[in-house]
Amino acid sequence: MGGMTNGTVLVTGASRGIGAAIATRLAQDGYGVVVNYAQDAEGATSVVREISQAGGRAAAVQADVADAGQVAAMFEKAGAFGEPLVGLVNNAGSIGQEAPMADQRPDALARLVQTNVVGPALCAKHAIRAMSTKHGGTGGSIVNLASVAGHTGGLPHLVPYAATKGAVIAMTKGLASEVAEEGIRVNSVSPGIIDTEMSARPSARQIAETSPMGRMGHPGEVAAAVSWLVSNNASFVTGTDLTVSGGR
């Protein structure tokens, strides 16, 4: 990658799973990557080490996306590489409380919405200010991680999670229209069941086996979709949700 610089992309929730795969892929693409994490410092450090050893540029930054102050501080640190911010990948998310709606706790619902909807909105707010051509930025791309659940209503006992992902898909479409004239594209990726810790329940594997392709997806397959949407190869694509689900 000798000296190649494509600017910086911030990836939230990048210490493991899909987020780690996205961060690694974007580093391979030549971006400086800000690897955000909420609690898993060890995981984030490991992702940064792996990227650095492969000749890429990465830095770990702690912030809970549900906390406005921490998000603001994170974006101030995003200038670590002295390059303009050109991308945000809103990947951080929670699955919430696994329970029927009748048993959902109010505090769990509030926390889920704060993390999965307010968090991406707060991150988008700061990314737009940094990337908008109206504010002296170079333009850029925002990719929101939604879910097939946002279209289908999702798995049993995870209705609130599906609701937050439906909100992310709507936010993507509305925001794409709002910032198109500022040189910023906004798209979402809706993974199906991907083989990560988050889907490590027997029911998930059974459901994946009934999909047309008959298997779970791999984090790298989601990362490839994100890589394309961040890149200039997707220069005329905005307001779109790309489903990565093996046909479900």
UniProtKB/TrEMBL annotation:
Family annotation (CDD domains): SDR_c (cd05233)
GO MF entries: oxidoreductase activity
Domain of life: Bacteria
InterPro entries cross-referenced by the UniProt entry: NAD(P)-bd_dom_sf, Sc_DH/Rdtase_CS, SDR_fam
SUPFAM superfamilies: NAD(P)-binding Rossmann-fold domains
Keywords: Oxidoreductase
Family, similarity comment: Belongs to the short-chain dehydrogenases/reductases (SDR) family.
The protein, known as: Glucose-1-dehydrogenase
Source organism of the structure: Dactylosporangium sucinum
